[in-house]
Amino acid sequence: MIWGGATNWHxxxxxxxxxERAGLDLAVLDAIALAEAGTLDxxxxxxxxxxxxxxxxxxxxxxx
Length: 64
What we know:
Mean pLDDT: 90
Helix content: 40-55%
Largest sheet: none
Number of helices: 3
Radius of gyration: 15 Å
Distance between the termini: 27 Å
Shape: extended
Number of strands: 0
């Protein structure tokens, strides 16, 4: 959505439609994100730490 030229990709039903095209349900994804917020935040923090330890920053990044 971001790089596909959609204006205001984060508003309206753009994300719900993108999730549906991927075979997902945005409402279910949102519920999981809320229910598992602590776990997800810890995973994001660990990924950020690994990124910095690899000497990189930003996205997209791929390190082997």
